Automatic annotation (TrEMBL):
Name of the protein this chain belongs to: Magnesium transporter NIPA1
Gene name linked to the record: NIPA1
Keywords: Membrane, Transmembrane, Transmembrane helix
UniProt main location, coarse: membrane
Membrane topology according to the record: Multi-pass membrane protein
GO annotations of cellular component type: membrane
Top-rank lineage group of the source organism: Eukaryota
Pfam family, one: Mg_trans_NIPA
SUPFAM superfamilies: Multidrug resistance efflux transporter EmrE (SSF103481)
InterPro entries named in the record: EmrE-like, Mg_trans_NIPA
Entry GO MF terms: magnesium ion transmembrane transporter activity
Length: 308
């Protein structure tokens, strides 16, 4: 598949998955509401499971998108789901979207379009052998060491009484784990594509080992992200968590992809500035959507209290 075609397909998949993720939150909230009215756990509500499976489908599609287009292009497009979910919630849940919230929806869309225009459309790493070569770069390992050091500090901080009530600590942990999740997903996709029986011989004899290493990193990073994101939502409102997490996660993924995949190596200063402006526009839109949306966040899935 040509790079331009793959990149276009990756953008389309990323946008579709973003809309699926935005839909999943609304459907999950509908399921939680039905479960509360029925007096049982949302785990017994089919509508909640529909939302959960929709979210899983969206996340699986994101992994496909990461292997079709640069991560620095795919990751910011997740913002498309925020205004879509807000509009959908206003229709299905009766949540009121204020004029500033509607402006935020427009800003999210405008910023995403600006990012699509200015972000590099081709990845510098197309083969597993190229990725293996990049993994020997001392700059990359220095970046990994720095991220691990910061993560260790933040995890210890989160375990302390002071850190347990600070939402910024788990948000920062979730964001930094993105430095491992997205590159590992892209690496696993490259490995799987070369290890398929119908594919040409792998570009490196270490393809199975690289696939196992990427899968191991994902096994650790994904549950950790979910855990600390839950902690962040428990410590603060979604109006605070969502925009800060979006910004932090996008910056983290962009930094890791720039170091490992060098996706911005051939980009001009104008393109970088345009993408940065688009990112800031999206962040402003996300803040407006979340801060000026009239609706209570979903409650955690807990079994109903026992009746006497």
């Amino acid at each position: 598949m040509e790079e331009a075609t793959a990149s276009t397909l990756g953008v389309a998949v990323a946008i579709a998955c973003s809309l699926l993720n935005g839909t999943s939150f609304v459907v999950q909230k509908m399921g939680i509401g039905r479960a509360q009215r029925a007096g049982h756990s949302c785990l017994r509500e089919w509508l909640w499971w529909v939302g959960t499976l929709t979210m899983a489908l969206g996340q699986a599609g994101n992994f496909v998108a990461y292997n079709l287009a640069p991560a620095t292009l795919v990751t910011p497009l997740g913002a498309f789901g925020i205004p879509f979910g807000a509009v959908l919630a206003s229709w299905l849940l009766g949540e009121r979207l204020s004029p500033l919230g509607k402006l935020g929806c427009v800003l999210c869309c405008v910023g995403c379009i600006e990012i699509i225009i200015h972000t590099p459309k081709a990845s510098e790493v197309q083969r597993l052998a190229e990725l293996e070569d990049r993994l020997t770069d001392p700059v990359f390992w220095a970046y990994v060491a720095l991220v691990l050091l910061v993560l260790l500090t933040l995890v210890l901080r989160a375990a302390s009484p002071a850190g347990s009530s600070d939402a910024l600590v788990p948000i920062a942990i979730c964001s930094l784990f993105g430095s491992f999740t997205v590159p590992s997903a892209k690496g696993l996709g490259l490995a799987v594509s070369e290890l398929l029986p119908s594919a040409a011989p792998p570009s490196t004899p270490h393809a199975p080992q690289l696939a196992l290493a990427a899968a191991a990193v994902l096994t650790v990073s994904l549950p950790a992200q979910l855990r600390y994101l839950t902690c962040a939502l428990a410590a603060s409102s979604s109006a605070t968590v969502v925009p800060v997490y979006y910004a932090g996660f996008t910056v983290s993924v962009t930094a890791a992809s720039s170091v490992l995949f060098r996706e911005w190596a051939g980009a001009s200063a104008v393109a970088a500035l345009g993408a940065a402006c688009g990112f800031v526009t999206v962040c402003a839109g996300v803040v407006l959507v979340e801060a000026y949306r009239d609706g209570s966040p979903p409650l955690p899935c807990q079994p109903p209290p026992k009746r006497d």
